[in-house]
C-alpha cells in the first residue's frame, strides 16, 4: 500500500514537472515568434526611390499593343511591374502567386510582366503559364530605367504614377509585403518594423 502511494506521488510530481517544461517551452516559442520580423521584399537603393514619380516609358506588348509603363494611370489604377526571365526558376515559381494577386485586385490593379531576351522563349513561358501577351513587355529599356539588377523584382506604382514599394521578391510573402508597405505608408516592411534608421521600434 505504501509503495502504491509513493508511486502515485512520484507520477503526479512528474506530470507537474512536464507541465512546467511545456509552459516554459511555449513561452519561449512566443518570445521567438515576437522577435522574428515578417519577411519583406529586399529593397535595393538604386533608381527612382519609393515616393518618387515612376519613370514613364512608352512600350509595346508582345500582343502588339502600345502601353505606358509608369506615369498617372487611367481611372487611378495601380500598376505592378513584375520583372522576370524564362531562365529564372524563382520567377516561374512565383508566377501563379503573381497571377492570383492580379486576379484578387483586378478592379484596381494592372499587372505588367517585364522581360528581355529572345521572343520565342518569352512566348513559350506565356503559353506554359497561361499568361496574357497583352500584359507582357519585352524591353531591356524598362529594366535599365528602373535599374533592375536581380530577378525576380517588382515595383508597385499607384494611380498617380508614384512608386509606393519595390524590391527583390523571392516568395509570396515578399509580394504581399509590397502592398502591406503601401498600406502602412512606408518604403518597406523593414522600415515599418525598425524605423528609417534600422533600429527596432520595440
Structure description:
The protein is elongated and about 90 Å long. The protein starts with a helix and ends in an 8-residue tail after the last helix. The chain has helices spanning 2-35, 89-104, 119-129, 140-145, 172-184, 189-194; strands spanning 57-60, 66-69, 78-83, 109-115, 136-138, 153-157, 163-168. By secondary structure, the protein is of the alpha/beta class. The strands form two sheets. Strands 5-4-3-6-7 form a five-stranded mixed sheet. Strands 1-2 form a two-stranded antiparallel sheet.
Key descriptive features of the protein:
single chain, 202 residues, alpha/beta, two-stranded antiparallel ribbon, 6 helices, 17% strand
- What is the strand content? 15-25%
Report the mean per-residue pLDDT as an integer: 85
Strand order of the largest sheet: 5-4-3-6-7
Number of helices: 6
Distance between the termini: 57 Å
Topology:
Elements lengths: L1 H34 L21 E4 L5 E4 L8 E6 L5 H16 L4 E7 L3 H11 L6 E3 L1 H6 L7 E5 L5 E6 L3 H13 L4 H6 L8
Parallel strand pairs: 3-4, 4-5
Antiparallel strand pairs: 1-2, 3-6, 6-7
